[in-house]
Amino acid sequence: MIDIAYAEWLEVGFRWLHLIAGIAWIGSSFYFMFLDYSLQPDKSLPAGVKGASWNVHGGGFYLMQKYTVAPEKMPDVLHWFKWEAYFTWISGFSLMIIIYYWGAETYLIDKTVLNLTQLEAIGISVGSFIVSWIVYDRICKAPIGKNDIALSITVFLLILLAAYGFTHVYSGRGAFVHVGAMIGTIMVANVFFIIIPNQRIVVKALIEGKEPASYLGAEGKQRSTHNNYLTLPVLLMMISSHFPMLFSNKHSWLVVGLVIIVGGVIRDYFNAKNQGKAGNRLMWQWPVAAIFMSILIVFISFNDEVKVTEDEQLGSTDVLAIIQTHCVSCHAAKPSDEDFENAPGGVRLETLMDIKRYSSKIMKQSVLTKAMPIGNKSEMTEKERIGVGDWIKRGMPIDE
What we know:
Helix content: 55-70%
Shape: elongated
Number of helices: 14
Distance between the termini: 44 Å
Strand order of the largest sheet: 1-2
Largest sheet: 2 strands, antiparallel
Number of strands: 2
Strand content: under 5%
């Protein structure tokens, strides 16, 4: 077990790096998609130039030009955009190790879902990232890859299938963040295995005085576009651990699908706007996004009303015993759980007064979303959750 102080500092450091690199990568992705779509043809442009775009920022004017394949001669200085993506993945995978691999029994494994050992959970995780990239890459290179709509639907179904699989292997929290990590891995692999290598081939051809193959740029553009449309859904998935309502639904793989649709539709609006589109091309995205967001909210918020008969109602003594069994190992002045040095969030649940004080949090985390106990390490039953929730709804009466 790694010392808690070092673990926390490692998490803070890599999380900060993840944010910094992610912001840089997303910013460059959004800008270059805008630039590509905003290009305007002009007869006065040099031969081989597809179009140009005038930009103003910071008190200055910029003229951006894009060559259909490449310029006739290599420029003396060429800026590459790759380390933003690489460090986003490196820092993200480091966080996966620090939080979900070292703390697999707490954050990743839920024995009520699948009884895994730590090594089995980690092995499935790493293997799924590798397999997902191979399958995605093969699909893109297959004949279906030439049809953008068919390819998009296929990739969407691939992600849904993976999400469904993760929910039957890991805890709700672990499954949801793994979907985001899987998509993020595919996005970075696009940069590492396709976009940058293709650009290197083009540069090498220019240096040798040869004409680069046109498919190299087209393939890179296709993968870059995929990355752009997946960015918004991935952002929400990667912060999902802070919002148990997203991953606690028993059909959270459908939540993934709705998030991808909403994020992709919103991204399409901005891409179309950057292309100078107007009218009907810009009128459908926000209404559609609002409809699917409403479906998402209703889907997440719906809970079956479970009636508890008077004979099955719990008293305060019963509730205290349940909380002490399932919650106090973490939420105490001196937690007995080795993963925690202090009570998470400062929440202590050692007495009935503590329970009443934090009843709304208990209702949200343990009854409605079932996010706690983390990974359900203590195997809290559905009957216990329902009983505690019913006791809270009845005003938390104290046994006489």
